[in-house]
Amino acid sequence: MNSNFADRLIEEGTRKNSVLVVGLDPDIRYFPDFILEGIDSSSDESIAEAIYACNTIIIDAVADHVIAVKPQLAYYEVYGSYGIQALEKTIRYARSKGLIVINDAKRGDIGSTSAAYARAFLGNGAMSGDMVTVNPFLGSDGYMPFIEAAQENHKGLFLLLKTSNPSSYEIQDLKLENGDLLYYKLAEEIEKLASQTVGVHDYSFIGAVVGATYPAEAKQIRTKLPHSIFLVPGFGIQGGQPEDLREFFDDNGHGAVISSSRGVIYSYMNRTTEWKKITLPEMISCITEAASTAKDQINVVRFNNVPI
Fold first, then answer.
1. For the chain, what is the domain count?
2. How far apart are CA 133 and CA 259, in angstroms?
3. Is residue 308 part of a domain?
4. CA–CA gap between residue 234 and residue 238 (Å, rounded)
5. C-alpha–C-alpha distance, residues 293 and 18, integer Å
6. So what's the pLDDT on residue 305?
7. Residue 192: inside a domain, yes or no?
8. Burial 229-240 (b: 16+ CB within 10 A, else e)
9. Fewest 10 Å CB contacts: which of 125, 158, 266, 284?
10. Opening angle at CA 301, ends 296 and 303, nearest 5
11. Is residue 256 included in any domain, yes or no?
12. By residue range, what is the domain housing residue 189?
């Protein structure tokens, strides 16, 4: 096992020729009828069973083209304990297919509470993944327990920095007294820790979330965070285009993993107005093709092979 999780991310990306991450954001409104057959829509337990069934289909379809899956926890927590059980089973299934699991939890608190969150998501429990997204805006006593747990358990984390949502500027772009932007200051604080925890590929297990919708900002952030791998959401439906991704990678095509959720897992919805009636083979074919296409689009940019 690599002691620095950044090394595992990079080496998996090389082995699979992919840095694509697929989000697992289950919304039963977008499930084909065959998955919902016999499901009681008033029962959290029944819905959770459908979510797990859908996730296994998606994981099977994308496994050859992605390095990780990223469950968004809100979609599971909304169904209470049954949703969490679906998440735990999904994590086990993804690992059985050799995939890295990034829990998109965006957790953050202080002191013992933050340490408990860190144990939950970066420990050895059923809900623990390999990496987790963390909200750092409570300060260092909020994110240090995650860093300590990740280092102890040979896992990783991504600290929210410049997120892909349109209103991120309202807080993240606030100008400080010295003229710096808030997220620049946070990047400097992250780099102090990342530079001390690099692996053999010169990257740290302490990563950052930087949205695909902000390529110009990413170029500036990279100068401040040369040792952090970026988790890049916003590619695809949220507006991030392949050509926007150039600034996220180093000269070796390392330094970022690119996340796509709805554009892959619900790709069949763009094929036909009768998508509710598609069959299992048709669903698998659509998702596999979408993942393969996204991987190839990213690779063209990260290796600068040909113009987009």
1. 1
2. 13
3. no
4. 5
5. 11
6. 44
7. yes
8. bbbbbbbbebeb
9. 125
10. 95
11. yes
12. 5-302
Residues facing residue 101 across a β-bridge: 69
Whether 270 is in a domain gets the answer yes
Query: By the 8 A CB rule, do 20 and 294 touch?
Result: yes
The answer to whether 229 and 256 are in contact (CB under 8 A) is yes
Active site residues: 106
- The tens digit of pLDDT for each residue in 206-241 reads 999 999 888 889 999 999 999 999 999 988 665 567
Residues 244, 66: Cα–Cα separation, whole Å: 20
Tokens linked to 253: 């095509």
Indicate the residue type of 196. Q
Say whether pLDDT at 60 is over 50.
yes
**Structure token digits, residue 44:** 């959290």
**CB proximity list for 201: less than 8 A, separation 6 or greater:** 6, 7, 10, 11, 254
User: What's the chain's average pLDDT?
Assistant: 93
| Amino acid letter, 168 | S
Give the whole-angstrom CA distance, residue 235 versus residue 80: 29
CATH of residue 78:
3.20.20.70
The letter for the amino acid at 198 is V
Task: Provide the residue count of the chain.
Answer: 308
Cβ atoms 245, 258 nearer than 8 A: yes
